[in-house]
Every structure is written in structure tokens, then in C-alpha cells.
Amino acid sequence: MNAMKRGVRRVTMKDVAKEAGVALSTVSHFLNGTAPVAPETRKKILEAIERLNYRPDLTARNLKRQKTSALGLFIPDVTNPFYAELAQGVTDVAQEAGYSVILYVTSYKEKLEESFVSLVEQHQVDGVVIAYSFIAERLWGRLASSGVPAVLVDVYPTNDLWPSVVVDNEKGVEKALLYLASLGHTDIGYLSEPPYVLSLVKRQRAFLNFMKRKGLPLRDEW
User: Fold this and answer.
1) Which CATH number among 3.40.50.300, 3.40.50.2300, 3.30.420.10, 3.20.20.140 corresponds to the domain 62-165?
2) Residue limits of the HTH lacI-type domain (predicted)?
């Protein structure tokens, strides 16, 4: 179904259910995380959300709550320098705008993720910055349903529900390798964690492509 045919009428949860070919209650359960939804059904719902460009009615929900002047920041680990610097940067900018920041450290534990999502659902923050891609899919649905604005950082989204700010990993690796090559280096190694997230996959792929394109030696031990 073409969402453009709906004109200016707001797309509703009922529209999503019809587009996905599932019951309205199933869509509600998926978005609210109130009951298990089969993987194939979740896929249908997410595809319908994307096709229809479905967005929760944030205006109506925001009218029901008071402003908190607080933002939530989801990160998995405070000991990682990347997340520590991110937290400091978000805090600095938020304070300049008159907001405080509540730090949610998940420690890669689903129970903590769920408790933090519950706080968002209770509207204890005006918005969230999510720098963590391992949140369980059912919790993503609950975040969407909460109506609290969110932005993703260094997370490659599987749908367009939220804006995302990501690093151009390929370009960064390319620039580093071009610099090393300009100095006359040909034996170049690549040191990284195992590529368990998309950003690491992109970096490794960029390295391999550059080395092959330039005819430079590749060794497994590097």
C-alpha cells in the first residue's frame, strides 16, 4: 500500500496492522513490549512501519506530561574512552541548552536495559540519546511507543523511526591508509576487536578493499 495515498491523514497503529496483515493487538504488543511477537511477524510490522512512515503521536502524548528538562543517555560501558567522551560531550551541550543528563549504563545486561526503558516510558526524561545497538528488539518497540524523542549515535538503524548520527568508518580508514601509503609504507597491519558490530565490519572491509586495490600485501597475522 502506498502511504502517499493517505494524503495528510495521520497514519495510525490500525493502518500499520492492516498493512502488515496482522491484528491491531499484535502491533500494540510489539510496540509496547507487552507480549511475545514471532520474528516473522515482527519483520512484517517493521516493514509496514517503514512503508507507511508511521510515527507515534508525540504532540498528544507530550501534552499529557510536564517537561522534565532532563535527557537520558544510553551507553553500554563507562570505561570505554569512546563512550566516556561521548557522555561528556552530550552533557556539555545539554547543559548549555538548560538540560541535565541522566546516564543509563546498560553494562550489556538486558535486565538493566528493560529498567531504563521503563524509566523512559514513565516520561522521566524529555528525550534520549542511544549509543547502544544491542538493545533487545522488543525494547526498541517500547521506546518507539513511549513517544519520547530519541536520536541514535554510532548505531546503524534497521528502520527510519529515529535519526542516527554515525561515523563514516570507511572514509576514516581510507584517509589513514592513504597517509601511511604516502609515507612509503607498504607492510600495513590492521588491529581491531572481532567485527561483531557493523562499524567494525565496515572498518575491516575498508582496510581489505584498500590493500587489495593498491596491490599491497595482506597477511593473516597482521
Assistant:
1) 3.40.50.2300
2) 11-65
